[in-house]
User: What shape does this take?
Amino acid sequence: MSHSFVTVVVPFAAGRAGDVLTLVRGMGNPAAPALRTSIESLDVVHFMSVNVIPADQGDRAHLLLEMSVDGPGEAALRGVAVALAQPLTDVLTAAGYTVSATGLPAFLSRHSRTLATTWYGTARSGGALGLAFCGSPNMPLRRIRDEAALGDLVADWSDLLYGPGPALDKLAAVRDRLWARGRWKWAFDAEQTPFLLPRRDDTPSVYARIFLASIPALLWPVLLVALLICALRWSVLHWWWIPSVVGVFALLLIVLAAVLLVLVRRAEKTDIPEDVAPSPQHVAEVMDGENHVTLNLLIVVTRLKPGWLRRFTLRAGFWVTSAALARIGVPGWLGDVGVVQFARWVLLPGTDQLVFASNYDGAWESYLEDFVELVAYGVTAVWTNCRGFPKTFLLFWKGAKDSDRFRRYVRRYQIATGFWYAAFPDLTLVQMRTNAAIRLGIAGAQTEQEAQAWLDLFSAPR
Amino acid sequence: MPTPFDPSLLEVRSFRGRCAQWLVDHPGFLFAFFRAVWPNLRVCRYVLVTRRDDVEDVMSQTGAFATRVGPRLAALHPDYPNTPVFGLGSDDDGTYAEALQAASAVLELGDVPGVARIARGFVEPRLAGRTTIDAAELIRLTQADAARRYFGLDVDDAALPQFALCGLALGNYMFGVQATGSDTWRASRAAGAEISAIMRRSIAHAPAAGPNTLIGRLVASGVAAGDIEAMLTGFVAGWVGGATVAAIHALQVLLGRSRAMRAAREAAADCDDAALGRCLFEAIRFSPIFPGAFRDCIADYTIAAGTRRRCAVRSGDVVMPATHSAMFDGTRVAAPRRFDPDRPAGDSMVLGYGRHFCIGHAFGRALVVETLKPLLHRRVWQRRIDRLPPAYFGTVPLTLMVQLR
Amino acid sequence: MTEPVPLDANEVPTLVFGALTRWQYATCLVLRFTPGGVAARRVWLRTLAGRLTYGIADRNAPAHVLALAASGLTALGLDTADLDTFSAAFVNGMTAPYRSRALGDEGDRRPGCWDWGNDAAPADALLFIYALSQAQLSAAVGAVLLPPDVHLVQEIKLQVRAQTPSGFMVEPFGFLDGISQPLIPGTPPAAAATPQSNDVVAAGEFVLGYADSHGYLPAAPTVASANDPDGVLPTASNGQRDIGRNSTFLVVRQLRQDVAAFDNWVAGCAAALSMPADYIAAQLIGRWQNGTSLVRNPRAPGTDDPDNDFLFRRDDPRAFGCPRGAHIRRSNPRDALHAKAEQAVRITNRHRILRVGRPYIVPPHGNAGGMLFMCLNTEIERQFEFLQQTWVLGPSFDGLRDETDPLVGANGGTGALTVQGEQGPQYLAGMPDFVTPIGGGYFWLPSRTAVHYLSV
Assistant: This one.
C-alpha cells in the first residue's frame, strides 16, 4: 500500500496568530489522549501535525496541517475532518474562518496542496512546490504494528533462541510455536520490504536516465525552444532535422548551465551568512516540545533569498533530489541516513517561506549530525536558497558541513511544535527494520547461514 | 446420487478451447498492455485489476472483497458451511481466526520433512532406468500419493490415478478461473463428491490410518466426522490441485528457459534444497498456479482512490486481482522479466497474498522441490514429438513427455 | 591537512592537558554567589586569578581550576546580551526540564532530588583544588578566602583510588577507569600515542578558538565591544570581542554508585546462569576489572595492561565479545554504527568528551561514594548531551530492543542487557539502579584572559 502526503495550508491574518497558536498547542504535543484515540480509530494516519507558520513580511500567517497517511490522502483528510471536527473548527474560527463541522472536509480539501516539482505540477490550482519523503515505503500501519508485536513476542522466547545447536533448528522451533498459535500465519508470507533491499549503485546509466526524465519534467521549455529554432531554420523533411534538434538542445543546455553557474557563484559570493546563536529563550521554547517520546518533529521555516534564480535552483534541487532518491541507494534511506520516517519540504504558496517538516527518530542533535556527516550536500542544496544559511560553494558544497553554524541556523529558524501526533511514538526505523527482517526470516530463511543472520537480529541492528 | 466423475469432461481438445487455454496460460503480454493503458479494466460487472498496488489493496480489503472458496466449498455439501474449516475462506475476522487456529493445529510444520520423504520415496523408484516418462502424470501421482499417506486416506494404488485427477479437478473448481454451470462445473462437482466419499470411507477406517496421519490425529482428538471431511476436502483441493499445477508449471517454465533450467539443475546437483526451491518458485512466478483468484465485491469500494486510475466497484461486482500481472509490475518489482532466483521473496505472490495466503505453503514448497529434484538430477528435456499441444486438464497438460539421461 | 595550531599553554585551563591524577588529593568547592556584591566578587576573583592553573601544571605545586556556571557569569556582572552568545545549553543549564528529560534525569533522578546544582542548592561556580598531599590540600583550601557574598554550598572531597602502574584510576565498582580518552594533538598524551590512533581528535572539539574536526572554528561566545572598552579580549571575526578563545565547557555530574546493589546483582545473576561473577560484571562494562577489553579477551581477563587498540565492528562484528549494550560500547561506539570503519570513527569522534573526573568520598567513613563525573567539550549539545541521550541512554542504540545503559541507566529493577554469543542471544535481566545522579551542572572553564576580563 502506498502512502500519501496531505498538506493543508490555510492563510489567515497575522494578528490572530497568538490566539490560533494557543488553541493549536492546546491540542497537545504529543496529541492529547482524546484526540489520539480519535485519530487512531481511523487507522490510516502515521503522523499528523498542525502548526502556525508566523507571518514573515506582510500580514499573512499560515496554518499548516500536514499528515502522512496510508492510502489515498483525500479519504484520510475526510476522516480527520470528522474525527477532529471540534478542535479544528475552533482553530479555524480563531483564524477568522466560519466553518461548520459539516463544511470542514470540503474546506480542508479546498486548501489541500499537492507537492510537486514540475512546472505544470506547481502551476495548476492546488499545487505547491515541494518534496515529500517516506522512510518506510510499503509499510502500512497494520504491518508495522503486527511486525512489532511479532518481534517483541519472539524476542521473549529465549528458551528457544538461546542454547546449543544449529540456528536453523532454533528458527524451526520458533516457526512451530508461532504456527501452532494460528494467528501468526501472515508472518510466514514474505512481503515486499523496500528498506531492506540492497543498495542500488549510481552507475552512469542511472544518471543518464535521470537526465532523460528531467526533460519532460523540467527541461521541456528548452526543448521547445530548440524545436522552434530548428523548425524555423531547417525543413522538417530533411534527415538531419532530428540530429539538429538534439544538437541545438544540447547547445542551449550548455549555455544555460554556464549562465546559471556564473549567476550562482556571484550570488554565493555576495550572500551574507548569519552567524548568530539562537537565543536561549528560543531554544528553551523549542526544546520544551522535544523528547517527550522517542520520535520527534522538526519544523523549520526559512525565507527564500529574493529573485527568480533561487526559485529555480530550489525547484531544480528538489527535482534532482527526488529523482535520485527514486533510483539510487536504498528506498526509505536518504543516502546513509535511515532515521527519517516522513518528511516534506513545502514552499508556502504566495510567500517566500520554505517549510521543512520532518518526523524523525531520536534526538535533534543526532538527527542534525546525521545531516552534516552523511547528506550535507543534500540539505545544503535546498537551504542554500534561503537567507542566512552558512556559506556554500556551487549549491552543494560547504554549507551544512560547517556543523556548528548549521545547527545554530536550524535551531534559530525552528519553530516550537504546536500539535503533533505519531502513531508509534516510540518505534524507530531501526527497530521497524529489525522487526521486518525478523518476519522475513521466519517467512523465508532456509539455510544455516540465513538462520544465523536471523538469530543475530535479536541483538543486532539492520 | 451424483453422477460419477468423468475426467474427459475437463479435457480441452478443441481448437477454440486450446486458443482460449493458451490465452489463459500466457496472459503476460495482455497484462502488460492493461497495466500500462488500462490498469483497472471494467467490462460490465467484471473488473480486472492489474497493477501491484491495486492488487495488494483488493486482496487486503477483506471487508470489501470476499473470496469464492467458501461458497464453492459450500456447494459441494450442504453441511460444509457449518464446519470450522469453512471459516478459512471467510472474510469475517472472528470466524477466520477460529478456522485458522483449527487448521494450523492440524497441519503441523514439523510434518513437512516426513511428507518430503514420502514424495522422494515415491518419485525415485519410478525414474530408475527410465529414459522417457510422462512428467505430468508422475507429478500428479506424487502429490496424490503424498496426500493419501499423510492424510491417511483409503485409496489403493489402482485408484490413485483417478484420485489424482479428482483432486486436480477439485482444486481447479475451488480456486480456478472457470465458467460455472458448464461441463467443467459438473465434472468438478462430481470430483468433489468422489473425494468426499473417500473421506467418509477413510474416517470410518480411521484406526487403520495410523496415529501419524491427519485423519488418525483428528479422530483421536475427537473432531466430528463431518468437520474432518470438510477440512480434508479443502486440503485435498489445495494439495493435489495446487501442488500439482505448481510443479507442472515449474517444469514447463524450466523446459522453455535454458538459463532457468541450468540454475535449477545446478542447485539440484548441489543438493541445495533452498536454492532449488528459490529456482522453482521463481519459475512458477512466470506461470503461476492461477493468474488470479476472483473476489466478489460485498461492499462498495474505490480501488486506487485519488489517482487517475481510480475505479469504483459496487457491491455485487466481480473483481479479478491478477496476481500474475502484479508480479510483473515494473514499478514495484525490479527487472520483472528476468529469471532471478535470488529476488526478494516478497516480490512473489505465487502462494497468494494477505489473509488467504496458502495455508499449506510449507508443504507445497517441500512437495514441489522433492517431486522435481530427482528429475533435475538427470538431464531432462521435452520430447520433440510431444511439442504438439497436449490435451489440457484445467490449466495443466494431461501429459508432458520428457526424456531423461 | 595543515599542521594543527598548538594549544596556548599560557591560556588554556590545565584540565585540558590531563586529569591531574598525580595530584591524588583534591576537593571540589561548590560555590554560590549571593545577589549584588559584584565589585567585591571581582576583587576576590582577581586574587584567585593568580592561583588558577593553565597549561601543564607545575609538578610540585597545588593546581586550581575555576568553573563558572551561567548564573555565576551574571553574578560577576556579565551583560545578559553577552551571556546569550554562549551556547543555549550552557545558559539554560543542565536542570532545565527539557534537558533533564533528554538526560534521563527524571523520576527519583530529577534535579529536585539532588544534593546540589538544583534550585535549592544552586552552584554558581566550582573551584577545584588539586594537591600532592593532604597537608598541601588543606593549606591550599585555607588560602582560598571566601568573601561574604561567596558561599560554600558544599565541599566534595575527591580521591584517586589505587592508581595502577599504568596510571589509571579505579572507580568504586572496582574497574579501571579512563582508559579510552580522546587525544588532542600537541598534548603530552597524544605525543605518546601512535599517530594513526583513532583517538586523536582535533583540538577544536575541546577548546574554543581552534579548528574542529571539520576544520571550522567552533561557535564562540562574544562580548559586545562596548563592554570591553580596554580591549582586554581579542577581537572576534564578527567584530565583537572573543571571550571564548582558549576556554572550554565542563560538564559535572555527581554520580552515586550503589556498590552493594551492583555486587549483589552480579552475584545473583552469576549464580542463576552458572557463570563467573567477574564475567557477568565485565559484560555490563565491556572491559574486565583490570581494564582489558572484552573484544580482545572475550573469555577471561587479559594479563597485560589495559588495551585500547580495537574497533567494535571490525574486531568483533557479531558482538560475541563485547555486548552491543555494554557501557564502553555505548559511550564510544568507535566504528560500530556505520559500515565504513574510517567514516564511522570520524563520525563517532564528533561526539567525544574528555573525561577528567574522579571518585568522591563520603565524609564520615571516607569510603568512595561514587564518581564526580567531569568532562570537557566545546559543544555541550553535540558532545555530552548527544552522547548521554542517543548513545548511553538510547533505548534502541545500535538496534537494541528497549534497553538502556546497564551501568548508568535508570534500570529500576527491570534493566536488561542482551549478550550475543555462539548460542544465541541471552538476556541478563532484572538490574536495579546502580548509579544515580545527585548533583551537577554545566560550567565554563574560562581562559586566563577571560578571567582577567571578568575580574576587572
